[in-house]
């Protein structure tokens, strides 16, 4: 028997009888055809997970909540900034980012790419994130930080969070490591950047493996020389995530997974 998961954004943390309405409840009754006695999982996208037994599945879905828990967000919090892939490739990227455990995605404009993300597209991607969360069982929904005017590359190099580690993915960097920086800088120009980065780290209260990471992913054509120089001057860490050029929708989840794998091992 299949185990079904429902996304209900306004769940309250309590046990007992609960009547569910709306699209998710209707889909569970009419399409998934859940039946009394079946167990279902309820998620609200903000950490709340419930295990419930179906009591009635007719005009409304009535369940009995057996137990619930409040999950902690996954650490480190990996925040992806990248140009938006074109067409359905954006959905593929959001689905994969959700599954590997990234915390958020922010569309970004850079010199060689960066189309705007309109409200309609953002809503579609939000639905993809919800379906992905249901499929993989993540308690916290992937946040989509889209706007009608995506931030510029220069904006991505500045963070209001003093603990946030900013990493730019590029083949010119050393292989990515989870803790600290990526070893010897490859040019004299990055020595100043390294010192700036260390000063930035010294003010952070987080342990190295729990500090949030902002990952900057560029287009398939790569960053411009000006963008790379600007990043180094700003003290941003440059790291490589593989031997080959990858499309954005693959590079983003791969990079996120490498960072998260290193933190857990």
Question: What report would you give on this structure?
Answer:
By secondary structure, this protein is of the alpha/beta class. It folds into 2 domains: 4-70, Ribosomal Protein L25, Chain P; 78-264, SPOUT methyltransferase, trefoil knot domain (Alpha/beta knot, 3-Layer(aba) Sandwich), CATH 3.40.1280.10. Helices cover 31% and strands 24% of the residues. The protein has 7 helices and 11 strands. It has helices at residues 23-30, 89-100, 119-136, 153-156, 189-202, 225-233, 248-264, and strands at residues 4-7, 16-20, 39-43, 48-57, 61-70, 78-82, 104-107, 143-144, 165-175, 213-216, 237-240. A 6-stranded parallel β-sheet has the order 8-7-6-10-9-11. The protein has a 5-stranded mixed β-sheet with strand order 1-3-4-5-2, with helices on both faces. Helix 2 links the parallel strand 6 and strand 7. Helix 2 (89-100) runs parallel beside helix 3 (119-136) and helix 2 (89-100) packs parallel to helix 7. The model is unreliable at 183-205 (pLDDT under 50).
| Shape descriptor | elongated
Give the amount of beta strand, in percent: 15-25%
The secondary-structure element order is: EEHEEEEHEHEHEHEHEH
The CATH homologous superfamily of the largest domain is named SPOUT methyltransferase, trefoil knot domain
Distance between the termini: 35 Å
Mean pLDDT: 87
Strands, total number: 11
Tally of distinct domains: 2
Low-confidence stretches: 183-205
Oligomeric composition of the shown chains: single chain
Across the major sheet, the strand order is 8-7-6-10-9-11
Label the CATH architecture of the largest domain. Answer: 3-Layer(aba) Sandwich
The biggest sheet amounts to: 6 strands, parallel
Radius of gyration: 21 Å
Query: Structural class, from secondary structure content?
Result: alpha/beta
Briefly, what CATH class of the largest domain? Alpha Beta
| CATH topology-level name of the largest domain | Alpha/beta knot
Number of helical runs? Answer: 7
Question: Helical amount among residues, as a percent range?
Answer: 25-40%
């Amino acid at each position: 028997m299949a185990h079904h998961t429902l996304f209900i954004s306004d769940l309250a943390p309590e046990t007992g009888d609960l009547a569910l309405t709306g699209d998710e409840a209707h889909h569970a009754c009419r399409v998934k055809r859940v039946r009394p006695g079946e167990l279902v999982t309820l998620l609200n996208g903000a950490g709340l997970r419930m295990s419930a037994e179906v009591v009635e599945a007719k005009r409304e879905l009535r369940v009995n909540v057996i137990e619930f828990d409040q999950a902690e967000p996954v650490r480190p919090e990996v925040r992806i900034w990248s140009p938006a892939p074109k067409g359905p490739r954006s959905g593929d990227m959001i689905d994969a980012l959700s599954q590997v455990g990234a915390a958020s995605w922010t569309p970004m404009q850079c010199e060689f790419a960066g189309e705007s993300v309109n409200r309609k597209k953002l809503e579609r991607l939000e639905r993809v994130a919800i379906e992905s969360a249901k499929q993989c069982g993540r308690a916290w929904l992937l946040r989509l930080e889209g706007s009608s005017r995506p931030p510029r590359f220069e904006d991505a190099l500045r963070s209001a969070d003093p603990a946030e580690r900013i990493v730019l993915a590029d083949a010119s960097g050393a292989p990515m490591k989870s803790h600290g920086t990526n070893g010897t800088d490859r040019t004299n120009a990055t020595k100043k950047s390294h010192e700036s980065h260390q000063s930035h780290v010294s003010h952070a209260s987080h342990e190295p493996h729990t500090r949030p990471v902002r990952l900057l992913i560029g287009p398939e054509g790569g960053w411009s020389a000006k963008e790379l120089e600007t990043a180094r001057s700003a003290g941003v860490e440059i790291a490589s995530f593989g031997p080959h050029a990858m499309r954005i929708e693959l590079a983003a989840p791969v990079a996120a997974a490498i960072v998260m794998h290193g933190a857990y091992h």
